[in-house]
Amino acid sequence: MAANNIISNFILLPLSKLYGFGVGVRNIMFKWHILKQRKFDVPVIVVGNIAAGGTGKTPHTEYIINLLKYNYHIGVISRGYKRNTKGFVLATSRSTPLDLGDEPYQIFQKFGREVSVAVCENRCDGIDELLRIDPQINLIVLDDAFQHRYVNPTISIVLTEFYRPIFMDKLLPLGRLRESPKAIYRADFVVITKCPERIKPLEYRIFDNKLELYPYQKLFFSRYRYPALKPVFPEQTTKTPTLQWMSQDDAVLVVSGIANPKPLVKMLKRNPPRIKIKVFPDHHNFTRKDLQEIERRYNEMDGEDKIILTTEKDAVRLANNPYFPQRLKSVIFYQPIAVEFDSARPDNFDYELKKFISEKIQSR
């Protein structure tokens, strides 16, 4: 194993350095105004990360939407990763995950009556078109756009994981970093995500010291809460199980197609039922063969009661999949995720975000 790692590092290290050089040149071109940024007449919140995937962008984007939707008419724009469409697409009641991508579709399903949701690879074009369609929008939220530097944001919020922070990672393809950890200087708020229930004072100090944030930057810590399970096919389900009340004789098949399912699995293993796991790649589009494999694994599980449990992001793809077996529709559920911020720190995320946006609007 060690020999394989050495060989892998030997091959990937030059590629990582070459990648870092390219990203560095691009950032310098923005710094020297060779590549131009655009400011918009409405405030723009960018939610993003430096590592590729798995930091919790969508749950935090949803938290921000829920926090601000009563004070602003919000427009949400995402790239729409792995969608089957191109260019600008406005989410409507006829949209599917293949039209928008699973994450924007999930956001639209939750907030579509309260916010406008669209996807576009070019965020500047996306903002222009969304404001043309809905001129009442007075706040834009860009999901996963920290590296899309053609937009000059009002506020940048960068996420990094508690158990794999940017200062312990390396540039692609050797690690998961999209750019140097030093790029965090462009963030206004930094959020350490997926934190444990209790954070030790030493752990706070490690992040304070290692991140080396400037005085103008604010640091927050967040964790996931897991509300009650929900059925993927509500019309097919008469009763929703409660994990805490399932017994050791029951079984759960976990189906995951997200970048980092470890926090979910860790939470599930605290409960009585036996856990079996089937992992797919992030943003995976389930094929007929995949669903046959899921059905086979479910049939082979022993248990007085047994269910299939998936993530919220996977649920939107499975619910719209024409190949999903009819007999499994009554036994598949998803685990919602809610974000909560650590209250041990002096700064309050909700207050600071609202204050920051208000001050920026007043200074225009």
Give your account of this protein's structure:
It contains ten helices and 14 strands. With 364 residues, the protein is α/β, with parallel strands linked by helices. The protein has a nine-stranded mixed beta sheet, with helices on both faces. It has a five-stranded mixed beta sheet with strand order 9-13-12-10-11, sandwiched between helices. The chain is globular. The N and C termini lie far apart (57 Å).
Summarize the structure.
The protein has helices at 2-31, 57-68, 97-100, 102-111, 123-133, 201-211, 262-268, 288-300, 312-319, 349-362, and strands spanning 44-49, 74-78, 89-90, 116-119, 139-143, 155-161, 189-193, 218-225, 230-231, 251-256, 274-279, 306-311, 332-335, 338-341. The chain is α/β, with parallel strands linked by helices and 364 residues long.
Main traits of this protein?
33% helix, 364 residues, alpha/beta, five-stranded mixed β-sheet
Q: How are the elements arranged and paired?
A:
Blueprint: H1 2-31, E1 44-49, H2 57-68, E2 74-78, E3 89-90, H3 97-100, H4 102-111, E4 116-119, H5 123-133, E5 139-143, E6 155-161, E7 189-193, H6 201-211, E8 218-225, E9 230-231, E10 251-256, H7 262-268, E11 274-279, H8 288-300, E12 306-311, H9 312-319, E13 332-335, E14 338-341, H10 349-362
Helix pairs in contact: 4-9
User: How do the strands line up in the largest sheet?
Assistant: 3-4-2-5-1-6-7-8-14
Helical segment count: 10
Q: In angstroms, what is the radius of gyration?
A: 21 Å
Overall form: globular
